[in-house]
UniProtKB/TrEMBL annotation:
This is Peptidase M14 domain-containing protein. Its cofactor is Zn(2+). It holds the Pfam family Peptidase_M14. The active site is at E294 (proton donor/acceptor). SMART domains: Zn_pept (SM00631). It comes from Capitella teleta (Polychaete worm). One of its GO terms (cellular component) is extracellular space.
Length: 330
């Protein structure tokens, strides 16, 4: 799809470098892609700004001992729960940036945005902007195109597993690989990667079963709003509701900048996959509305979306999340 990938990567990295120089040490989540420590500092900053209406939670650590940090907006035991994460695949930088924007809009809208006020009145919101810290750091320091974690594999010189094939739902099934050198290597066993173990354990231990309403995981690229399942073309029981809500989200998203998304189940509009967090969220902890969002674009830049597209991506996807919530509540 891209004739000279290195040129695209070089241009992408240079634009991000120049954007960082322009902000001169300040933090701006709209202009360039933050490095991991900047991202964690921003989450802490949002938590401090939010005060007792938020809680920043360290849910675990990666293989390289980088923190996996969640921010929870509002705490109540009698509300539904919405979970949004990004960055399970290291090279998908726009996913991290969009998830940070959601945090910003929620925290800054608590006193001024009527819909945000309604959102937190009915749901507790959990945001995890970087599921795979080690891989993300590696894309900044060594290999921009890295996808996996950085956990060594016994008997192989190839490092890492695909964290989005490492969940205990049809583990090792279709769309995965048992080759440690493959980008879709599922790992030696389910939850063998510290980041997937931390995420799944936290969700199942801390979110009551009856409150598990909405689970969204942010990826790039392809402009897709995808429901379960990935491992089969059989459709989930509430497929019609999932499509109703997904289409409402895609329509609102398109209204912002004209970006067109396709809505459907993952196996039908992308490809077959097993052991994903999406299928796990629907099939194990039992979230009702579950989606993978594949952000911009459709291949011109692929994983290396230029920094000038960060803010438009953030704005339109936030519109989609707001519409998703409204449609769920109808």
């Amino acid at each position: 799809m891209i004739e000279d990938l290195q040129t695209v990567i070089d241009d992408h990295m240079e634009k991000n470098k120049q954007a960082k120089l322009r902000r001169a040490g300040t933090t701006n989540i709209n202009d360039d892609y933050l490095e991991f420590e900047e991202m964690m500092d921003y989450v802490e900053q949002m938590g401090e700004q939010c005060g007792d209406r938020c809680e920043v939670i360290d849910i675990g650590h990666s293989y390289e001992n980088n923190v996996i940090k969640v921010i929870k907006v509002l705490e109540s035991t009698d509300k539904q729960v919405a979970w949004i994460d990004g960055g399970i695949h290291a090279r998908e930088w726009i996913a991290h940036a969009v998830t940070l924007y959601f945090i910003d809009r929620m925290v800054n809208g608590l006193d001024s945005d009527p819909l945000v006020q309604q959102m937190v009145a009915t749901h507790d919101w959990y945001f995890l902007p970087c599921v795979n810290p080690d891989g993300y750091i590696y894309t900044h320091t060594t290999n921009r195109n890295w996808r996996k974690t950085r956990v060594p594999n016994d008997g192989s010189t190839c490092v890492g597993a695909d964290a989005n094939r490492n969940f205990d739902h049809n583990f090792g099934g279709i769309g995965t690989s048992d080759n440690p050198c493959s980008d879709t290597f599922h790992g030696d066993y389910a939850y063998s990667q510290p980041c997937t173990a931390a995420l799944s354990s936290f969700v199942e231990s801390n979110i009551p079963e009856g409150s598990r309403s909405t689970f969204v995981t942010i990826h790039s690229y392809s402009q897709l709003w995808m429901a379960p399942w990935g491992y089969t073309t059989d459709r989930p029981e509430n497929y019609d509701d999932l499509m109703r809500v997904g289409n409402a989200a895609a329509s609102a998203l398109q209204d912002v900048h004209g970006t067109r998304y396709t809505v459907g189940s993952a196996s039908e509009i992308l490809y077959a996959s097993s052991g994903t967090s999406r299928d796990w969220a629907y099939g194990v902890p039992g979230f009702e509305f579950v989606y993978t969002i594949e952000l911009r674009d459709t291949g011109e830049h692929g994983f290396f979306l230029p920094p000038e597209q960060i803010l438009p991506s953030q704005e339109e996807t936030w519109a989609g999340i707001r519409a998703m919530y409204t449609a769920i509540m109808q």
